[in-house]
Amino acid sequence: MVFSSLRSASASSHDVCSRAYGLGSDYLGLSYEVLLWPPDGHGESEASFSVVAASASTDVRVQFPSSSSQDDCMIMFSGVRLDCGQTIDFTLLEAETATFASKTTDLSGTLVDASMPVAVFVNNSRVTIGPGNVIDDIGEQLFPVSAWDRQFIVAPIPDNNQSGYSLRLTSGGAGNVSVDIAGTVHHLEPRQPLTVDFLDNRPTYVNVTDIEDAAAGVQLIQFVRGATVPADSGAPAALVVPSVDRFSAEYRLNRDDEWFDSQYTEYVSVVTRRSDVSGLRLNAADLYVSWLDVGTEDWVTAAVRLQGSKHFTLQHAGGQPFGAYSYGYQRAHCAYAHPAGASLPIQVINSLIIYALFYL
To answer: How confident is the model over 159-171, as pLDDT tens digits?
Structure first.
């Protein structure tokens, strides 16, 4: 099926307490693979992804994955039903958006290829993750295939120790992919997501041990499970985890919104090598935290509570790269998560792409 031109269609969130972020134009790419949480079956749960053009006359091809149960496959675009296994081609104008949604189908494994750099966002409406009874909307901006890699450090979810999280991985079209996840080797099939649960909320080392294409990598999303016990505070959230090769020596975090400041408990989770701990600074002060061993290659992690300031600079005095992931929540209500690097808080985004996606 071919759509020669698309009207602008914006993605929206029903959760007014969600916090969005946008990648800079340097992070956009030509090829993506959709990875999200599948619809959970109740009437209001919906999974979707949006393709947003950064340039005029951007040709896009979307290839939906095949389904073992075609009766359950229902993908909607602007009132038109599409099928699993289908390929469509269309052209987008600058800042124009195409959104595809399903209440029944896991859209993970969908391939998106474009003639010019595009942004791809994934969203879940009214979703539960795990057995918790907290329902929330979640969304993330995906990294393009060109930003995938092979080594990841996953941090625990602050204040959610008894509910934990789930990991989902995909490897695009790469074959013979083996991934070591916390000491257990898993094999990935092309365009088929792998889900691994960590109910104990421990830190996790993920490493690709074998892959057919020497230049290929995998993408990884950490899904925060909703609270299962009153002592835990989490709600569903999603974090696209950057690979170790994407780490930076400095991150800037802003808390400019007074509503967020009063309603949210906010953290930044730091992952670093133990040999680099002494060089870490938050607003020029040493970090006084308890470091938790990840369990391999000298990696450690700690959650740092953000409070008492509106602006934070997290850096390594010696210029050593480390990872930083933002996480915030309202107890038993909603949560957000995103990579602290390669992103900006919603208050300082002035990109037309982000405006078109979330507010039109």
So the answer is: 988 889 999 999 9
